[in-house]
Amino acid sequence: MHIFEILYHEFVGFWGFDQLWEIIQTQNYEALLTQKGIQAFLRPVLPVLLLIEIIRGLFYRRYSHDQYKISVFTYILNRFISSFLSIAMVAFCIGLFEPYALIKTSFTWYWFIYGYVVWELAHFVYHYFGHKVRLFWCLHSTHHAPEYMNLSVTYAHFFLEAPYADIIRTTICILLGVNPPLLFLIMFIDGTWGSFIHIGENLLKDGRLGVLNKIILTPSHHRVHHARNPLYMDTNFCNLLNIWDRAFGTLQDEKTTMEIEYGISRPMKKGDFLDAYFGEIVALGKDVYRAPGLKNKLLYIIMPPGWSHTGDHKTATVVKAHYIREHQQELSFDERV
To answer: Where is the Fatty acid hydroxylase domain positioned along the sequence (predicted)?
Structure first.
């Protein structure tokens, strides 16, 4: 009976209604006006949207279990691992680095704006390294492995990616003076938006969101980020504010003339969960083993994916530059249109 009880609590916990139901039972509706209450109200939104997305896909006959298989298996495995491994990286980094903060901030609207800009910088740094350092790409690639875009992709992460991300993001934010209560609020807002931007075409055909596409990073921008099209590789690293993508030249709008191809550039076994979860680690291990000399072995770990000791590099930068040279006229015409 114990296993069924665990499964029941996991199922209920996935939908996120537990805290909201507690407020309803106690009739303490004033709690909905607090930060905790707002979080309790918003938690079920993503799972419900995911269910609607699947139902619409079934209704319009666009649903395939392959679109969700990798994400679902990844979520289940990560939940299993987290039952035995608890890593409080955020709390650890706050305790370690808060005494060395360059400035002190408070819980006010103007420091909130400052904090959000700093958070986006921290997110950009973590995300950029996740694409540009082969070892970190091994942790991040599971999220890019699905060949479809839908809300379930937000659950597709290698279990060590969150601790790696939290170390970088929390450390940068704390050192630049974002105080912990402000940081937790920003993390909640950014996490909610970061889940929403994975919404698929079954629920939101045009992800540009009108005029918002010029102001913030929309689902359209994140679809571009998940694409393996050469022009779209390694773009749109921020989450909500596009300020740092603009600053570093990595902002890329979706082109109406270019159909998005989701997934990673490495040939994969279609719909294979183990390949999606461990494939890049295995590939890195093989490259390191075959590389001549200690220097080349180390370089395979720290250089971008696609780097080769032979000089025949197939990194995103090389592939994109080649594509732009080959399609210069076509791209110039698209920009004029």
So the answer is: 113-250
